[in-house]
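Usage

Read records sequentially. Each one opens with the input sequence:
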Amino acid sequence: MKNKGIVIFLIILAAMIIAIIIGDYISQRPGKRGANPYEYNINEYKNIDPELIKYQESKNFRIGFETPAGIAVAADKIYVIGDRSLKIIDFSGKLLNEVQLTESPGALEVTDEKIFIAVNKKIIVLSMDGRQLDEWILAGENSYITSISAYEDNVFVADAGLRKVYRFSENGELLNEFEGKKSDGVSHGFIIPSPYFDLGVTQYGDLWVTNPGMHSIENYTFEGYMRSFFENTGIHIEGFSGCCNPAYFTFLDDGSFVTSEKGIVRIKIYKPSGEFDCVVAPPDKFKEDGEAPDVAVDSSGNIYALDFDKKTVRVFEPK
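and closes with the structure output:
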């Protein structure tokens, strides 16, 4: 009898174990799982209060590039690089001129007199009608140029590969370089986790450089000494999130910053003080987990976004 009782107990125990296994299997099937209390959900941060959105998309047009790379607006024209060419377009989207390049471009700057285009480890200088005037070669083996900005006789170049900013004369002479470390109490330098490293100079001659790993935009003298900065880390609308943001930025005439982010793709405006102002384009305007658009501004304050995923120039006007 004792052995019979043990056998019955073992049968019942085995049945219970099988029932638990079957129940666990069923609960883990798609559509049967309960909510994961540890799930990282960012959907709530993609919904933007409509009151914060101060711009509307007025038009867009494809530019015929398989791989668009950069945009600039100058002299009432749109300049776009991609594939192996530079295209000059009017505000209606009509092609005015196309300049063929020998290699794929990576960054663009346009002044009143010259066009600067980064190609691999060099910068080619063109006249406004597309003739090549000069070529500057960076010495660093691991250089990767991501941004160019010119002001008067100075041309600044952001090198994401070596995490440096170079300052050239208009004739291509290297005047100085810096790594974002020349300030009391600041020793981290430029932190570039991925190839997003932008810079720009305001119409008043203020040089600003992103430090994407720190979620900041920093102001430097031309010699490379930090004067000020603003940063805002956070997934909320006022902040910069992810490994490295903002990805791109430009300026409005009043010195406000127009920023573009990847991860949660969005375009925003910050006041000259660094305080969040408004939203230009919310995440639902872009491909989910898409690339951050490059941004440019015209003299009327309209914002141009080069959408790399849709291969389109998109124009946003104030409401």
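Summary fields computed downstream for this record:
- The chain is about 10% helix and 40% strand.
- The chain has two domains: 1-31, 48-318.
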